[in-house]
Design brief:
The protein is α/β, with parallel strands linked by helices and 330 residues long. The chain starts with a strand and ends with a strand. The protein has eleven helices and 15 strands. The mean pLDDT is 93. Helix 3 packs across helix 10 and helix 9 (268-274) crosses helix 10 (276-292). It has helices at 41-48, 117-120, 126-136, 155-164, 177-185, 199-206, 221-230, 254-257, 268-274, 276-292, 308-317; strands spanning 2-5, 16-19, 29-39, 64-75, 87-94, 100-104, 109-110, 145-147, 170-174, 190-193, 212-217, 231-239, 262-265, 299-304, 323-327. This is Zinc-binding alcohol dehydrogenase family protein.
Length: 330
Protein backbone atom coordinates (compact mmCIF):
# COMPACT_ATOMS: atom_id res chain seq x y z
CA UNK A 1 0.00 0.00 0.00
CA UNK A 2 0.96 3.68 -0.25
CA UNK A 3 1.62 5.62 2.95
CA UNK A 4 3.04 9.05 3.73
CA UNK A 5 5.99 8.72 6.08
CA UNK A 6 8.35 11.03 7.96
CA UNK A 7 11.97 10.07 8.45
CA UNK A 8 12.87 13.45 9.93
CA UNK A 9 11.11 16.57 11.16
CA UNK A 10 10.95 19.66 8.98
CA UNK A 11 9.02 21.53 6.30
CA UNK A 12 6.35 19.85 4.15
CA UNK A 13 8.98 18.39 1.82
CA UNK A 14 9.91 15.81 4.47
CA UNK A 15 6.60 14.06 3.77
CA UNK A 16 7.30 11.08 1.48
CA UNK A 17 4.82 8.79 -0.25
CA UNK A 18 6.24 5.26 0.04
CA UNK A 19 5.17 1.67 -0.57
CA UNK A 20 4.86 -0.20 2.73
CA UNK A 21 3.17 -3.42 3.89
CA UNK A 22 -0.51 -3.29 4.83
CA UNK A 23 -0.68 -3.35 8.64
CA UNK A 24 -2.17 -6.33 10.46
CA UNK A 25 -4.84 -5.41 13.03
CA UNK A 26 -3.75 -6.51 16.48
CA UNK A 27 -5.92 -7.45 19.47
CA UNK A 28 -8.71 -4.90 19.88
CA UNK A 29 -7.97 -3.26 16.51
CA UNK A 30 -9.63 -3.00 13.11
CA UNK A 31 -8.10 -2.30 9.71
CA UNK A 32 -9.77 0.48 7.71
CA UNK A 33 -9.49 0.79 3.92
CA UNK A 34 -9.47 4.58 3.73
CA UNK A 35 -11.80 6.65 1.54
CA UNK A 36 -10.88 10.06 3.01
CA UNK A 37 -8.26 11.37 5.46
CA UNK A 38 -8.32 14.75 7.15
CA UNK A 39 -5.38 17.15 7.27
CA UNK A 40 -5.35 19.50 10.27
CA UNK A 41 -3.14 22.09 11.87
CA UNK A 42 -2.17 19.60 14.59
CA UNK A 43 -0.53 17.38 11.98
CA UNK A 44 1.63 20.27 10.77
CA UNK A 45 2.75 20.71 14.39
CA UNK A 46 3.53 16.99 14.58
CA UNK A 47 5.56 17.23 11.38
CA UNK A 48 7.65 19.98 12.96
CA UNK A 49 7.73 18.18 16.36
CA UNK A 50 6.05 21.01 18.23
CA UNK A 51 2.76 19.24 18.98
CA UNK A 52 2.18 19.94 22.68
CA UNK A 53 0.16 16.89 23.72
CA UNK A 54 2.03 14.59 26.16
CA UNK A 55 0.88 11.44 24.33
CA UNK A 56 2.83 12.48 21.21
CA UNK A 57 5.96 10.31 21.55
CA UNK A 58 6.62 8.93 18.07
CA UNK A 59 9.51 6.96 16.63
CA UNK A 60 10.72 7.23 13.02
CA UNK A 61 9.47 6.43 10.50
CA UNK A 62 6.22 8.21 11.38
CA UNK A 63 2.86 8.07 9.61
CA UNK A 64 0.87 11.08 10.80
CA UNK A 65 -2.59 10.79 12.32
CA UNK A 66 -5.96 12.31 11.58
CA UNK A 67 -9.58 11.47 10.85
CA UNK A 68 -10.07 8.41 8.64
CA UNK A 69 -13.27 7.43 6.85
CA UNK A 70 -13.53 4.06 5.12
CA UNK A 71 -14.61 0.45 5.36
CA UNK A 72 -13.49 -2.23 7.77
CA UNK A 73 -11.13 -4.49 5.82
CA UNK A 74 -10.06 -6.80 8.66
CA UNK A 75 -10.75 -7.33 12.35
CA UNK A 76 -8.27 -8.20 15.08
CA UNK A 77 -8.86 -10.61 17.97
CA UNK A 78 -11.37 -9.54 20.59
CA UNK A 79 -13.45 -7.22 18.39
CA UNK A 80 -17.13 -8.04 18.10
CA UNK A 81 -19.01 -4.74 17.65
CA UNK A 82 -18.05 -4.12 13.99
CA UNK A 83 -17.91 -6.36 10.95
CA UNK A 84 -15.87 -6.46 7.78
CA UNK A 85 -17.46 -4.14 5.22
CA UNK A 86 -18.91 -1.72 7.78
CA UNK A 87 -18.47 1.93 6.85
CA UNK A 88 -16.76 3.63 9.76
CA UNK A 89 -14.71 6.60 10.90
CA UNK A 90 -11.99 6.98 13.50
CA UNK A 91 -9.46 9.48 14.74
CA UNK A 92 -5.96 8.14 15.30
CA UNK A 93 -2.84 9.87 16.54
CA UNK A 94 -0.64 7.83 14.18
CA UNK A 95 -1.08 5.95 10.93
CA UNK A 96 -3.81 7.90 9.13
CA UNK A 97 -1.92 9.06 6.03
CA UNK A 98 -2.17 5.72 4.24
CA UNK A 99 -4.44 3.58 2.09
CA UNK A 100 -5.01 1.25 5.06
CA UNK A 101 -4.96 2.18 8.74
CA UNK A 102 -5.10 -0.05 11.84
CA UNK A 103 -6.93 1.70 14.70
CA UNK A 104 -8.21 0.97 18.19
CA UNK A 105 -11.65 -0.58 17.66
CA UNK A 106 -12.99 1.32 20.69
CA UNK A 107 -12.58 4.58 18.75
CA UNK A 108 -14.46 3.41 15.65
CA UNK A 109 -17.79 5.09 14.86
CA UNK A 110 -20.47 4.21 12.28
CA UNK A 111 -20.71 6.45 9.22
CA UNK A 112 -23.94 6.78 7.20
CA UNK A 113 -23.72 5.13 3.80
CA UNK A 114 -25.10 8.17 1.96
CA UNK A 115 -22.72 10.70 3.54
CA UNK A 116 -19.88 11.92 1.30
CA UNK A 117 -16.52 10.65 2.61
CA UNK A 118 -14.88 14.09 2.75
CA UNK A 119 -17.93 15.47 4.56
CA UNK A 120 -17.84 12.54 6.96
CA UNK A 121 -14.35 13.49 8.21
CA UNK A 122 -16.22 15.86 10.55
CA UNK A 123 -17.45 12.89 12.57
CA UNK A 124 -14.37 11.39 14.28
CA UNK A 125 -12.81 14.52 15.82
CA UNK A 126 -13.76 18.06 14.65
CA UNK A 127 -17.48 17.63 15.25
CA UNK A 128 -17.06 15.94 18.63
CA UNK A 129 -14.52 18.59 19.69
CA UNK A 130 -16.92 21.36 18.69
CA UNK A 131 -19.87 19.80 20.52
CA UNK A 132 -17.73 18.59 23.43
CA UNK A 133 -16.23 22.00 24.16
CA UNK A 134 -19.69 23.58 24.02
CA UNK A 135 -21.00 20.91 26.37
CA UNK A 136 -18.07 21.42 28.73
CA UNK A 137 -18.92 25.13 28.82
CA UNK A 138 -22.52 24.30 29.81
CA UNK A 139 -23.82 26.78 27.26
CA UNK A 140 -27.35 28.03 27.92
CA UNK A 141 -29.73 29.61 25.36
CA UNK A 142 -29.24 33.35 25.12
CA UNK A 143 -25.65 33.29 26.36
CA UNK A 144 -22.92 34.96 24.33
CA UNK A 145 -20.18 32.84 22.78
CA UNK A 146 -16.78 33.79 21.42
CA UNK A 147 -15.38 31.26 18.93
CA UNK A 148 -11.71 31.70 18.06
CA UNK A 149 -10.39 30.47 14.67
CA UNK A 150 -14.00 30.38 13.53
CA UNK A 151 -13.18 29.73 9.88
CA UNK A 152 -11.24 26.53 10.60
CA UNK A 153 -12.24 22.89 10.51
CA UNK A 154 -13.52 22.92 14.11
CA UNK A 155 -14.42 26.58 14.48
CA UNK A 156 -16.99 26.74 11.68
CA UNK A 157 -18.78 23.76 13.21
CA UNK A 158 -18.67 25.41 16.67
CA UNK A 159 -20.37 28.52 15.31
CA UNK A 160 -23.21 26.46 13.83
CA UNK A 161 -23.67 24.24 16.88
CA UNK A 162 -23.74 27.25 19.22
CA UNK A 163 -26.44 28.85 17.08
CA UNK A 164 -28.46 25.62 17.08
CA UNK A 165 -28.43 25.74 20.90
CA UNK A 166 -29.81 29.27 20.92
CA UNK A 167 -26.62 31.18 21.78
CA UNK A 168 -26.48 34.87 21.09
CA UNK A 169 -24.62 36.75 20.10
CA UNK A 170 -22.13 34.34 18.58
CA UNK A 171 -18.90 36.26 18.06
CA UNK A 172 -16.32 34.83 15.66
CA UNK A 173 -12.66 35.72 15.25
CA UNK A 174 -10.68 35.11 12.08
CA UNK A 175 -7.70 36.63 10.30
CA UNK A 176 -8.84 38.01 6.94
CA UNK A 177 -11.90 39.64 5.33
CA UNK A 178 -12.65 36.42 3.41
CA UNK A 179 -12.49 34.32 6.58
CA UNK A 180 -14.66 36.80 8.48
CA UNK A 181 -17.27 36.66 5.73
CA UNK A 182 -17.10 32.86 5.81
CA UNK A 183 -17.71 32.84 9.57
CA UNK A 184 -20.67 35.15 9.08
CA UNK A 185 -22.06 32.77 6.45
CA UNK A 186 -21.90 30.00 9.07
CA UNK A 187 -24.19 32.02 11.33
CA UNK A 188 -21.88 34.28 13.37
CA UNK A 189 -23.68 37.41 14.56
CA UNK A 190 -20.48 39.44 14.98
CA UNK A 191 -17.11 38.92 13.30
CA UNK A 192 -13.81 40.31 14.60
CA UNK A 193 -10.37 40.36 12.98
CA UNK A 194 -7.95 39.09 15.63
CA UNK A 195 -5.06 40.78 13.78
CA UNK A 196 -6.55 44.10 14.91
CA UNK A 197 -5.09 45.10 18.27
CA UNK A 198 -8.50 46.41 19.32
CA UNK A 199 -10.20 43.02 18.94
CA UNK A 200 -10.87 42.63 22.70
CA UNK A 201 -12.60 46.02 22.74
CA UNK A 202 -14.75 44.96 19.79
CA UNK A 203 -15.77 41.81 21.65
CA UNK A 204 -16.71 43.81 24.76
CA UNK A 205 -18.76 46.16 22.63
CA UNK A 206 -20.59 43.21 21.06
CA UNK A 207 -21.67 42.09 24.55
CA UNK A 208 -22.78 45.54 25.66
CA UNK A 209 -19.74 45.79 27.91
CA UNK A 210 -20.68 42.94 30.26
CA UNK A 211 -18.22 40.40 28.85
CA UNK A 212 -18.57 37.00 27.19
CA UNK A 213 -20.38 34.07 28.78
CA UNK A 214 -18.49 31.32 26.90
CA UNK A 215 -15.16 31.33 25.07
CA UNK A 216 -13.94 28.42 22.94
CA UNK A 217 -10.18 28.87 22.63
CA UNK A 218 -7.98 26.82 20.28
CA UNK A 219 -5.25 29.46 20.11
CA UNK A 220 -3.69 29.77 23.57
CA UNK A 221 -0.92 32.11 24.67
CA UNK A 222 -1.85 35.77 24.97
CA UNK A 223 -5.24 35.10 23.37
CA UNK A 224 -6.09 32.86 26.33
CA UNK A 225 -4.97 35.52 28.81
CA UNK A 226 -7.02 38.18 27.04
CA UNK A 227 -9.96 35.78 26.98
CA UNK A 228 -9.97 35.44 30.76
CA UNK A 229 -10.10 39.23 30.97
CA UNK A 230 -13.08 39.24 28.57
CA UNK A 231 -15.19 36.77 30.54
CA UNK A 232 -18.36 38.00 32.19
CA UNK A 233 -19.01 37.02 35.83
CA UNK A 234 -19.72 33.27 35.81
CA UNK A 235 -18.21 33.12 32.30
CA UNK A 236 -16.44 29.94 31.16
CA UNK A 237 -13.37 29.62 28.93
CA UNK A 238 -12.66 26.18 27.45
CA UNK A 239 -9.13 25.73 26.10
CA UNK A 240 -8.54 22.93 23.60
CA UNK A 241 -5.57 23.81 21.38
CA UNK A 242 -2.55 25.99 20.69
CA UNK A 243 -2.84 26.95 17.02
CA UNK A 244 -1.26 30.30 17.81
CA UNK A 245 1.96 28.58 18.78
CA UNK A 246 1.69 29.95 22.31
CA UNK A 247 2.79 26.91 24.31
CA UNK A 248 3.99 28.90 27.31
CA UNK A 249 1.46 29.21 30.12
CA UNK A 250 0.16 32.79 30.12
CA UNK A 251 0.28 34.75 33.35
CA UNK A 252 -3.22 34.73 34.87
CA UNK A 253 -3.80 36.30 38.26
CA UNK A 254 -5.87 34.25 40.72
CA UNK A 255 -7.70 37.51 41.42
CA UNK A 256 -9.16 37.30 37.90
CA UNK A 257 -10.71 33.94 38.76
CA UNK A 258 -12.02 35.19 42.08
CA UNK A 259 -14.26 37.44 40.00
CA UNK A 260 -16.31 34.26 39.34
CA UNK A 261 -14.64 33.28 36.10
CA UNK A 262 -14.00 29.67 35.11
CA UNK A 263 -11.06 28.33 33.10
CA UNK A 264 -10.95 24.70 32.00
CA UNK A 265 -9.67 22.46 29.22
CA UNK A 266 -11.00 19.83 26.87
CA UNK A 267 -9.41 16.69 25.37
CA UNK A 268 -11.37 14.45 23.03
CA UNK A 269 -9.71 11.26 24.26
CA UNK A 270 -10.57 12.04 27.90
CA UNK A 271 -14.17 12.89 27.06
CA UNK A 272 -14.60 9.74 25.01
CA UNK A 273 -13.14 7.55 27.76
CA UNK A 274 -14.96 9.09 30.73
CA UNK A 275 -18.35 9.95 29.19
CA UNK A 276 -18.83 7.42 26.39
CA UNK A 277 -22.65 7.66 26.33
CA UNK A 278 -22.53 11.43 25.94
CA UNK A 279 -19.85 11.09 23.26
CA UNK A 280 -21.91 8.57 21.26
CA UNK A 281 -25.08 10.63 21.62
CA UNK A 282 -23.28 13.67 20.22
CA UNK A 283 -21.96 11.57 17.34
CA UNK A 284 -25.44 10.37 16.42
CA UNK A 285 -26.86 13.90 16.55
CA UNK A 286 -24.06 15.31 14.40
CA UNK A 287 -24.28 12.51 11.83
CA UNK A 288 -28.01 13.18 11.46
CA UNK A 289 -27.47 16.94 11.21
CA UNK A 290 -24.83 16.50 8.50
CA UNK A 291 -27.01 14.05 6.58
CA UNK A 292 -30.02 16.38 6.62
CA UNK A 293 -27.91 19.48 5.89
CA UNK A 294 -28.80 21.42 9.04
CA UNK A 295 -25.08 21.54 9.89
CA UNK A 296 -22.60 22.17 7.11
CA UNK A 297 -19.11 20.71 7.07
CA UNK A 298 -17.28 22.86 4.56
CA UNK A 299 -14.46 21.13 2.69
CA UNK A 300 -12.07 23.68 1.23
CA UNK A 301 -10.17 21.21 -0.94
CA UNK A 302 -9.77 17.50 -1.63
CA UNK A 303 -6.37 16.31 -2.83
CA UNK A 304 -4.89 12.94 -3.81
CA UNK A 305 -2.57 11.31 -1.29
CA UNK A 306 0.50 12.16 -3.37
CA UNK A 307 -0.28 15.88 -2.96
CA UNK A 308 0.12 15.72 0.82
CA UNK A 309 2.90 18.35 0.79
CA UNK A 310 0.55 20.80 -0.91
CA UNK A 311 -2.13 20.01 1.68
CA UNK A 312 0.29 20.90 4.50
CA UNK A 313 1.33 24.10 2.73
CA UNK A 314 -2.33 25.09 2.39
CA UNK A 315 -2.86 24.54 6.11
CA UNK A 316 0.21 26.56 7.08
CA UNK A 317 -0.66 29.42 4.73
CA UNK A 318 -3.82 29.88 6.83
CA UNK A 319 -5.62 30.97 3.68
CA UNK A 320 -8.19 28.17 3.64
CA UNK A 321 -11.66 28.02 5.17
CA UNK A 322 -13.12 24.77 6.45
CA UNK A 323 -11.39 21.41 5.94
CA UNK A 324 -8.66 19.98 3.73
CA UNK A 325 -9.01 16.29 2.91
CA UNK A 326 -6.79 13.67 1.25
CA UNK A 327 -8.40 11.06 -1.02
CA UNK A 328 -6.10 8.01 -1.08
CA UNK A 329 -7.96 6.28 -3.93
CA UNK A 330 -8.74 9.27 -6.18
Amino acid sequence: MRAVRLHEYGDPDVLRVEDVPIPEPGPGEVLIAAEAISVGFAQTQMRRNIFPAPMWKPEFPIVLGGDVIGRVAAIGPGVDHVREGDRVGAFTLHGAYAEYTAVDAATVLPVPEDLDAAQATALPSPGPIASGTIGTARLEPGESVLVHAASGGIGHLSVQLAKRLGAGPVIATAGSPAKLEFARSMGADVVVDYADDTWPDQVREATGGKGVDVILDSVGGDVLRQGVELLAPFGRLVFYGSAGGGLAVPAISPMQLIEMKYLTGFALSRWRATRPKEYLRNHEELAQALAEGSVRHVVHATLPLEDVTEAHRMIESRAHTGRIVLLPRS
